[in-house]
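Q: Could you write out the predicted structure for this multi-component system? I'm mainly interested in how the pieces pack against one another.
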Amino acid sequence: MKIAFVGKGGSGKTTLSSLFIRHLAAAGAPVVAIDADINQHLGAALGLEESEAAALPAMGDRLTLIKNYLRGSNPRITSAETMIKTTPPGEGSRLLRVCEPNPVYDACARPVELDGGAVRLMVTGPFTDADLGVACYHSKTGAVELCLNHLVDGPDEYVVVDMTAGSDSFASGMFTRFDMTFLVAEPTRKGVSVYRQYKEYARDFGVELKVVGNKVHGEEDLDFLRAEAGDDLLVTVGHSDWVRAMEKGRPPRFELLEEANHRALHRMREAADATYEHRDWERYTRQMVHFHLKNAQAWGNERTGADLAAQVDPSFVLDESVAAPA
Ligand SMILES: Nc1ncnc2c1ncn2[C@@H]1O[C@H](COP(=O)(O)OP(=O)(O)OP(=O)(O)O)[C@@H](O)[C@H]1O
Ligand SMILES: [Mg+2]
């Protein structure tokens, strides 16, 4: 399952992603955690020291390695230079699984020990001004999108991505890559305006979007979110002293997280798990082709000097049957 946390800056995306990752790890589920946010804080939220977090390998710096591994012997993709962030897999491509050793994880993932077990953490690396454009060829989130488009994941294994709700993810199709998107919103007008914008983009793509209210105290906050998000409001999380203690560098054991917040995380997992029943691999593949053709036309063909539409393998459908165990 692929799960994204998006929302306004400062809404609590990183905090809630890290709690959700801890919740999954505590239940023994395999997790790949990916920090694709402008502000790279997921490592710290998972308990890494600043120096450990700073030493994490950046996916953005290893794009060529990632591309060369994923394109494998796919005859339609002749070089890493002509592989853009939306280039879809086809016959001959190498696919990724959540639980396997592979050169991409070797280069870009590091284990992080949590209560209950270790997760793999991957980070895009810090963003610069140049990364924030719409048609960024060397896009850092492009590395994540490529990995998601080559990932064959099953129901009880998780990829959790902490990301922005920025224009980059809409232009590229990144926002359509998830079984569940948790939009973290504070009970404020700005918080819900990001939700509305996201919903508008997502409408035509069958994106499962649920609002997770954060920093909610009292009935008025709850009423506000209910009125604004209606049935899309899944759960709310209040101020957490556990989170505060963690931020002070003294993380208590995860089981000591407030009971209500444990329940919220449990409902989030249930909601995400429920989507797997109607996982549609064909649509997933179709959408990656759609965004690839769009990007090819908008900038990719010109940038690479190649006809990128020819990279599409018309008979290929990504699903569990095409992934040979590594
Ligand atoms: N439920 C909560 N209880 C206590 N503190 C919280 C809670 N949610 C978020 N915070 C605090 O609010 C601040 C912002 O949260 P966080 O960094 O998770 O937001 P973000 O959306 O990832 O921000 P950015 O856009 O900067 O990446 C942090 O200091 C975090 O510890
Ligand atoms: Mg963040």
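A: Regarding packing and overall arrangement: The longest strand covers residues 117-123.
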